[in-house]
Amino acid sequence: MPAVLDENAIPSWVDDFGSSRLRKAKLKGYLKESLGVYRSERLKLERPEWKFLRIEHLTHSQLTETLKKISNPSEDALDALIDADERYGEEKNPVVLRHWFDKEVGKSIEILVQPFLGRTAGIDVVDYLKWLNPDYQSETGD
Length: 142
Hints:
Elements (H helix, E strand, L loop, with lengths): L9 H8 L2 H8 L7 H12 L4 E2 L7 H7 L1 E2 L5 H14 L7 E7 L4 E10 L2 E6 H8 L10
Antiparallel strand pairs: 1-5, 2-3, 3-4, 4-5
């Protein structure tokens, strides 16, 4: 299913998959005001463990260009990219590999990035591989 924001398809998605909160918003006419909840619920369902990347005032294409392109990606990163692209990739919406400076760990990490419902979603390569295989151990022991 393409991850494009189609306002006409939102009500049926809410009926099929939405939380009680979203269903109540639909019932009372607050669905347009609840797009953030819709995006979050749909991302959680369709891209487990992925998060929205937030850098103020940047479009997806600007954000993707801001994130450093990877040179010499790890084999783990390539494995994750191949799997994610097979699962989620679309011709006009490919999954790409980028570097992200993670302030919590104080270093640059490899992440998968893809536009999703008008925002940019991403996941740390290690987290993605752990989601695929809970017994996964990274090359660095993370």
